Amino acid sequence: MTQSAVPSSSPNSFRTGPDERGLFGIYGGRFVAETLMPLILELEQAYKDAKADPSFQAELDSFLTHFVGRPSPLYFAERLTEHLGGAKIYFKREDLNHTGAHKINNVLGQIMLARRMGKTRIIAETGAGQHGVATATACARFGLKCIVYMGEVDIARQMPNVFRMKLLGAEVVPAKSGSRTLKDALNEALRDWVANVEDTFYCIGTVAGPHPYPEMVRDFQCVIGEETKKQMLNQEGRLPDSLVAAIGGGSNAMGLFHPFLDDKDVEIYGVEAAGLGLKTKTKHAASITGGKPGVLHGNRTYLLMDDDGQIIEGHSISAGLDYPGIGPEHAWLNDIGRVKYVSATDQEALDAFQLCSKLEGIIPALEPSHAIAHAMKIAPKLPKDHLMVINMSGRGDKDIFTVADILGVKL
Amino acid sequence: MTTRIDAKFAALKKEKRAALVTFITAGDPDYKTSFKIISGLPKAGADVIEFGMPFTDPMADGPAIQAGGLRALKAGATTKKTLSLVKDFRKTDDTTPVVLMGYYNPIYVYGVDKFLKEAKAAGADGLIIVDLPPEEDDELCLPAMEAGLNFIRLTTPTTDDARAPAVFRNTSGFVYYVSVLGITGTKAPDLKSVKSNVKRLKKHTKLPICVGFGVKTAEQARTIAETADGVVVGSALVSAVADSLTKTGKATPKTAEAVHKLVKKIAKGVRAGA
Q: Residues B162-220: pLDDT tens digits?
């Protein structure tokens, strides 16, 4: 077996992957049970057809404008910039989207594809509940049956989102197997899909899973980066110098990064969750900086696991980042060196969460707080004309209970 | 290349009866008990033994086999120990085919070439890897066949006539027909659909077809044995292990016996269906 990370794309572009087997270098692929294989091939074809159909994109654009509220603003974070004393910092305000995060961009695309394919039952996995809420929202809007798998542990710590999903008419099914968190919710969703192949569409929430999901979810999230490009050209007359985004599975980051991959002067940082520190070995969720390549949930990518290939549950203060894997395209971008993958600890994210709330009047979700934490490390050393974009991928309303608890405040 | 699997099915063909294929999670509930269970299987009527390789995230398995895997891992099961269990079994039995069944990640992490070499040396005859469809054949299937191991393919009700040739292109030993749309040990097989699907798949392959996923009783085994070349029983045996344990999940003197008793019963059904 070849272990080299030879790019699957032409040497002139980082944006042509995956290849016809769904590979980005050695990452990605279609590691699924035979029962699902015909479905995945059908999905691949349906997505190809939809992509080539202008009416599909037109309908999606219309919903992104009127239902989601796009474009989201590119906002100059003036007081954070002053406070850090270096780079000029912008926030891409995905937190202002309907449902409060970037997740809805992808969900709308997939739900419209599901409708096109005649599927009537939608299943999804969720960790913090943001993807579950987005899926439940779109299913309510289009009158589709919605089942969301969520780890029993996550259900207990994300009650508000569980209630939101139920209000929206979704059924929330606890994943009781294994470690009872996001990875187990994904296992349960796959088990459901195998048992209900006829009418069911699996709406995956991140740029992972078997081909074509990493590509498809990326494409639906690219609206973030495409808007950012236009907005920055309008506001500053040039492209940004750096991009920073938090990474769990990596969909908000890929959405921002991908349109800039061939702009070689743009530095790109993906920030993984270092939890209680990478040295703890098991108390973090940094798949690239603290894991190694393996195969899980349909794709080859960096994973957290022990020496025997058994998967280790990730840990992060943010329930949206504690997935033990990462999208395969990120794994490839790491190996070829186009994107720098770094990490921020729980404490650093918590500090960033509070600083941003007080300085900008924006309570960020704990996920983008990791991106802000990295900006706090590098921005002070950068010149004042350095333009930096942080993906504000979601708002922090869902996290106030977690943060209050850690700060010792009773609500 | 003739493996123990080929020899076994050839012998059964002469006997004019179907095979009983038994699945046991290797190392469940502990190494010693697992060895006791497995080494008694041939005498109880098993013709082929599948050693389940424990994995934290078995996406195609139902609650029974998930729990069996976690029990084994908790008791210290590793890929290396599974291979050593095969070796220990081979000291007691040199004819019963051994198939290693599981998921790709532990093998990938162990190292494909190293794993194949050691599995063959330990006395394994074939592999069933759930998350390696034909689209990923160069990962393990082709190297395994080159190493002299059978690569047994799962086929399902979604494997239609258009797809069947691709599924059967690189495979050997026998074919595992998954009788239900779903995970192991949950739904009961629809015996009518099993019959028509086995007949349909026979048009595409000369290999023996064994039917599994959800077979629990001697009666089901009998009916399936009438149309298929073998019957696979897994979850029911792993459940028998679970039911025999103490409240804290430890083996009891009855553990191995409970499994062997059930195998005997189902073996009778298989033989009656010939």
A: 999 999 999 999 999 999 888 988 888 888 999 999 999 999 999 999 999 889 999 99
C-alpha to C-alpha distance for B15 and B135, rounded to whole angstroms: 37
Cross-strand pairs, A91: A75, A390
What average pLDDT does this structure show over A134-163?
Answer: 94
**Averaged pLDDT for residues A147-166:** 93
CA distances from B9 to A62, B25, B177, B211 (A): 61, 23, 16, 14
pTM of this structure:
0.96
- A37 and chain B in contact, CB less than 8 A: yes
Is A301 an interface residue toward B (CB < 8 Å)?
no
The rounded mean pLDDT for chain A is: 95
Q: How far apart are CA A89 and CA A335, in angstroms?
A: 28
For the question of an ipTM over 0.90, the answer is yes
| Catalytic residue selected from B6, B28, B47, B50 | B50
Whole-number Å distance between alpha carbons of B132 and A240: 42
- How confident is the model over A258-282, as a mean pLDDT? 96
| Contact (CB, 8 A) for A217 and A252 | no
CA of B226 vs chain A CAs: smallest distance (Å)? 25
CB B27 within 8 A of CB B77: yes
Confidence of residue A10 (pLDDT cuts 50, 70, 90): low
Q: Is A152 on the interface with B (CB under 8 A)?
A: no
